[in-house]
Design brief:
heterodimer; A: about 110 residues; mainly beta; five-stranded mixed β-sheet; four-stranded antiparallel β-sheet; B: about 120 residues; globular
């Protein structure tokens, strides 16, 4: 699975968009980009995933660059409950393959 | 919404005890997983299962065993606990065959809230 690089921490004002970057320059053609978050003392929560097209769901948007070497998770209107560690993961989506969680980005939403 | 339920949030045991951690999912998922999460080490896969009565070793199976007698339930067993098994244990499940719009290969894993196990 490709290695990912994320900033260790970010702040965002409540109500503003939070843009979390992820670099995955060694991604291969069959690897998906997944985003999870983990709020303190809870299990990881799935947010969104994509292969090469931009994706949007009720939680967030995922923007993947054309060369697929980086992506950005966008939380359109951050709330205090979005304070969490956000993990970007790239993996070949095969049955049984584990998810390799790196150190992620600790996002703090400020009132 | 997918619901993965782990039987205990916090557990304290003594070394040498046998411990069962239970996990139940309500989405008829085929695959289930057990991970442990430790500071600085991320998530490490202990065991996973593709189907009832099937099990596969992950990266760190030593000291653990699993049981999957029913599709919705996946148990992690610590036969004789040691202090280095103090950790957060996370169960996950994936793959709903009824979701024809997505393939087997790209459905995400959904996690429970974890069991924080302390071995004294």
């Amino acid at each position: 699975d490709a290695k990912t690089t994320q900033p260790p921490s970010m702040d965002c004002a409540e109500g503003r968009a939070a843009n979390l970057p992820c670099n995955h320059s060694t991604i291969s053609g069959n690897e998906y980009v997944y985003w999870y978050r983990q709020i303190h003392s809870q299990g990881p929560q799935y947010i969104i995933h994509g292969l090469k097209n931009n994706e949007t769901n009720e939680m967030a948007s995922l923007i993947i660059t054309e060369d697929r070497k980086s992506s950005t998770l966008i939380l359109p209107h951050a709330t205090l409950r979005d304070t969490a560690v956000y993990y970007c993961i790239v993996r070949v989506a095969l049955t049984g393959n584990q998810f390799y969680f790196g150190t992620g980005t600790s996002l703090t939403v400020i009132p | 919404d997918v619901k993965v339920t782990q039987s205990s949030r916090y557990l304290v045991k003594r070394t040498g005890e046998k411990v069962f951690l239970e996990c139940v999912q309500d989405m008829d998922h085929e695959n289930m997983f057990w991970y442990r999460q430790d500071p600085g080490l991320g998530l490490r896969l202990i065991y996973f299962s593709y189907d009832v009565k099937m099990k596969e070793k992950g990266d760190i199976p030593e000291g653990y065993s699993v049981s999957r007698e029913k599709k919705e339930r996946f148990s992690l067993i610590l036969e004789s606990t040691s202090t280095n098994q103090t950790s957060m244990y996370l169960c996950a499940s994936s793959f709903d065959r009824r979701k024809k719009e997505t393939s087997l290969s790209n459905q995400p894993q959904h996690f429970g809230d974890g069991t924080r196990l302390s071995i004294l």
